[in-house]
Amino acid sequence: MAIPEHIHDLRDERPAHLTGAALDCVKTVRPGIAVTLLLPADPALLMASLNLQLRENLHWDVVEADGAWRVTVRHRADAPPVDVFALLAADHKRIDGLLAQSLALLNRGDAAAATPLLRDFAAALKRHVGFEDGELAASLGATQAAADEPPAVMLREHREIAQQLELVEEALAAGPADAAELAVYCAILSGTLAKHEYREEHNLFPLWRAALMRRGKDARDALLDRAKTRLES
Ligand SMILES: [Fe+2]
Ligand SMILES: [Fe+2]
Question: Is the pLDDT of residue 142 over 70?
């Protein structure tokens, strides 16, 4: 289904007001809602700035014609991932969302409603960690990394995450789930995951992206395809 686009003509906007005006337009972008900006100058810096302000949730395409720039801005969720690391970052958000929904239900004392979500969360998290350990760490050299280097930090944190997830799964398996107990385990895991994902996205993935760029496009595309299959299965 085509996404409806809202068009905003900012070509006559005063330079001092352009960033604010563009931000007002693109902050309405959501999954399924795109906007188009008509701009008077190359939008590379402007779009990078807007994207940072909106937590890197934007994806955009630029077309230049007759001295004007037409920028179609979508939510990142509506854009195909550019590489395996963009896919993993999107998967972080999906996993975090499942845990946040579960935690909200547990904090209301509704363990019965949280249980199927937590099972989905646990399965998604295991697939994600399994892909990072089994595919990326193995082929991009985490096992030879020094203890304080990002690949070794990732492997260590995965072991910590697995231990914390085990507590959640044991509580789920023990019979009628105790919402308060589960909420404590989930809150601890949520904090651990937030720090881990930040370190991966900012320290490790840039290193691995550079290593992967030295390989051929076919190898990169094949890795992205395997990641899609593994994370969604
Ligand atoms: Fe990880
Ligand atoms: Fe990850």
Answer: no
Same domain, 54 and 101: no
**Residue 176 · residue 111 · CB < 8 Å:** yes
pTM: 0.74
Neighbours of ion ligand 1 (CB under 5 A): 132
Q: Are residues 207 and 98 in the same domain?
A: yes
**DSSP β-bridge partners for residue 30:** 33
State what percent of residues in the chain have pLDDT above 90.
72
144-199, pLDDT tens digit by residue? Answer: 667 788 888 999 999 999 999 999 999 999 878 899 999 999 999 999 999 999 99
- Distance, CA 54 to ligand 1 centroid (Å)? 24
List, as ranges, residues with CB under 5 A of the ion ligand 2.
Answer: 200
CA nearest 169: which of 102, 115, 132, 213? 115
Same domain, 51 and 106: no
Q: Tell me how far the alpha carbon of residue 205 lies from the centroid of ligand 2, in angstroms.
A: 9
Instruction: Quote the domain boundaries for residue 60.
Output: 5-78
Domain closes at, from 49, 78, 107: 78
Mean pLDDT across the chain, nearest whole number? Answer: 91
Cβ atoms of 227 and 86 closer than 8 Å: no
Looking at the structure, tell me whether residues 66 and 107 fall in a common domain.
no
Q: How many domains does the chain have?
A: 2
- Domain match, 67 and 171 both: no
Per-residue model confidence as pLDDT tens digits over 61-73 = 999 988 889 999 9
Neighbours of 105 (CB within 10 A): 21
